[in-house]
Amino acid sequence: MPEGLPRRLRHAFVWQVVIASLVIVAGTWVALVVARQQIAEHAMQEEIAYFWRQRALDPAHQPPDESRLRGYVAVGGDESALPPALRGLPPGLHMLRDEVVMVDQRGDTRVVLAYPRTEMNVRSLQIVVPLLLLALLALSASAWFTYRNARRIVAPLDFIARSVRDWDPMEPDPGALGPDRLPADAGPEARQLAGALQRMAERMRAFVRRERDFTRDASHELRTPLTVIRVASDLLAGDADLPERARRSLVRIQGAGRDMESVIDAFLILARESDIEPQREDFAVRDVVAEEVENARPLLGDKPVELVVAAVASPVLHAAPRVFAVMLRNLLANACTFTERGRVEVRIEADRVVVADTGIGMSADALQRAFDPFYRADPERPSGKGMGLSIVRRLGDRFDWPVALDSQPGRGTVATIRFGAARH
Predict the structure, then answer these.
(1) Is the pTM of this model over 0.85?
(2) Contact 215, 265 (CB under 8 A)
(3) Tens-digit pLDDT profile for residues 49-100
(4) Please, which residues bridge with residue 171 across strands?
(5) CA 261 to CA 250: how far, in whole Å?
(6) Which strand ranges, in their side-by-side order, compose the sheet holding 305-311?
(7) Which residues of 387-415 are buried (b: 16+ CB within 10 A; e: fewer)?
(8) What radius of gyration do the chain's Cα atoms show?
(9) Which of 9, 102, 257, 373 has the maximal Cβ count within 10 Å?
(10) Where are the domains of the chain?
């Protein structure tokens, strides 16, 4: 689950404090090393300078010999009085493993001062550690106050984000972002954002309600006149005395009515929300195919085309039969319209239905655009509006029935609806 803005802000400040602390500690350590050497060198130089001043007044003056600072004098190159570890060292400061040593020589007299390195480290830490702790404390306090202020600033945005997240997309609640519901410290920018989202929610809710009302009303109002047309045309078709010219016009009326019913069914199904499906039921694929094939026969007219069904399986689906019927109806309409002679075959298999024809076919370029809305492979033909295959593809994607096309110019087209597992 993605992190919220306050948590991300907290993590950012924690990492900022950690990184800054590491930088401070590293810098302090470097400063400690440098300061330790500088302090040791400065202190011992002062001691040696004091020794030479006193030696000038009293040639018998001896170097300091304390519990920590020890001094040695070698005259005439005789270093027998020096500890072995301090013999042969050139003038200058030396950081030995256990001691910090300063060597100075004037004439044939050499003075050596030695100070325990552990004690020098302790003295340096006593100076640096309080400064380090003070710096870390100041950094932590500054980061804490900055984080509190930043969190207070983003709290209204976090409230708005959580409120929008909890909205029902189909019925958003604009009142959740009302001025009286916002945090008291919400600034003008947050209130402007909340107001804009509130107005958008109101428009979204009105839009969803209009869509629902249209779908409900259109389902009734559009079907009623089409039912009247279909019933009246069927009654006229049964009149044996109907002139041939009128009968041909009647056949066209019936075909146009079926096309309109198909388009209305498809549009009403696609107009519904994706989580609202048509009622599911068990149906035999063979029954739907038989009905749609009979409805498609008038489209062939007197063309020398054979329309047949080849059933090699008898699958039963638990789905929406109207959706499957609309898809098959559009594929059959295309096959019958663009086949002038030969054969249109509907083949029923265990996991698919195949509509194959011997029509004009499509080129590779036309095949790539076949599912585009309003695209027609043959613009010279008056039949078809270029919506059939687009509707089939959208319905197939909506209900997980993928549709595939295979076509070659002059050799026909094969359309396949795959519906996966089915009972037999």
Answers:
(1) no
(2) no
(3) 988 888 888 888 888 888 788 888 888 888 888 888 888 889 988 888 888 8
(4) 168
(5) 16
(6) 305-311, 342-348, 352-357, 412-418, 403-408
(7) bbbbbbbbbbeebebebebebeeeebbbb
(8) 47
(9) 102
(10) 5-141, 278-418
